[in-house]
Design brief:
Number of strands: 7
Radius of gyration: 14 Å
Mean pLDDT: 94
Number of domains: 1
Shape: globular
CATH architecture: 2-Layer Sandwich
Structural class: alpha+beta
Distance between the termini: 31 Å
Strand content: 35-45%
CATH topology: Alpha-D-Glucose-1,6-Bisphosphate, Chain A, domain 4
Low-confidence stretches: none
CATH class: Alpha Beta
Number of helices: 3
Helix content: 25-40%
Length: about 150
């Protein structure tokens, strides 16, 4: 992952659910698709597959690098496709979960993004993190309009 000309996204959100609950929405394929994507293949162990089909033409793929139960998840990230400006595994996502009075403060850092794709990823995380919060809090979101 080239970091010389890379960009960083950092977003924090409070989720009214315990870290154990929020953690499972990154490791359980059925829970993943409640907030992001239509199909997920997840092998939550270091070196394991992280793949989420956001829509039929948009598939993100990487691998899990670190899992500290209920506090930290790190995985690589990129998009499948011959001409992807961000190929699979070429950036890194770090998710930190901190318990806060029965809720969770989630901080997501997406590192190693080329400047050309940063804005699209900011928009993506701004779309998906509130969906994660709603799903982890037990609210039914219905289908994601981005998956259509």
């Amino acid at each position: 992952m080239d970091t010389a000309d890379s960009e960083l996204i950092e977003q924090t959100i409070r989720i009214e659910a315990r870290p154990e609950t929020v953690f499972s929405f990154f490791t359980d394929p059925q829970k993943m698709v409640m907030w992001k994507g239509v199909l997920a293949s997840l092998d939550p162990q270091p070196g394991g597959l992280y793949q989420v089909e956001i829509s039929p033409n948009d598939i993100v793929r990487g691998e899990f690098l670190e899992l500290a139960p209920y506090s930290r998840i790190v995985f690589t990230w990129g998009w499948e496709g011959k001409n992807s400006p961000l190929p699979p595994g070429s950036s890194r996502v770090e998710v930190n979960l901190v318990e806060d009075q029965g809720a969770t403060l989630l901080t997501l850092r997406h590192l190693g993004l080329p400047a050309a794709v940063k804005a699209g990823h900011v928009e993506g995380w701004e779309h998906f993190l509130p969906r994660l919060a709603a799903a982890a809090e037990g609210r039914d979101l219905g289908p994601d309009p981005w998956s259509m």
